[in-house]
Amino acid sequence: MLTIASRRFGVILAAMAAALPTLALAHAGEGLPHDHGLSAGFLHPFTGLDHLAAMLAVGLWSALTQQGRRMLVAPLAFVGWLLLGALAGVALARAGLQVPMVEPMVAASVLVLGLVAAARWSLAPLASAGLVGAFAVFHGLAHGAELQGVQALVGMLAATLLLHALGLMLGLRLRTLAPLWSRLAGASVALLGLGLLTRMVWA
């Protein structure tokens, strides 16, 4: 039998799932160009629901499919490749250049990470790191094109680590509940990614 806490958690997840299509249409992925400062960098991942959901999903997936220290491999890989992508984004922005397909790849990352979390698809730690790292580069390119300065990048990384930690906490909590709730959480993220991609196609 489900506990009262489990039922309440399920109601919250169901409400989130119902709200995601609307939230996807309210996507605010474009931050202010050339933001500066620690606080601006920290807040930046929260300005786009795609970035926020992907970073939460990395922690969620890791907690659901890995054990012990292995849970940290994918989140740390994401942070490392995010930084490299952001540095490249800063350099490209200064040169007046852009990498094509950045936003669609960011949206695709939300869809894929949501699906693997919903399916509890277990990969070897290095394979998990490779998957999230490939997507992290595009998240970094998007952030780097809109941020400038070391402090802004440090703030962005701090926010990313916080979101990964929240995702890990959620995943660990869901491991103790019925599998339905973890699948619903992942499916909600995937639904958001699908909504974002659909919006781009029809825009």
UniProtKB/TrEMBL annotation:
Organism superkingdom: Bacteria
InterPro entries in alphabetical order: HupE_UreJ (IPR007038)
Pfam families on file: HupE_UreJ (PF04955)
Name of the molecule in the record: Putative urease accessory protein UreJ/HupE
Species per Swiss-Prot/TrEMBL record: Roseateles depolymerans
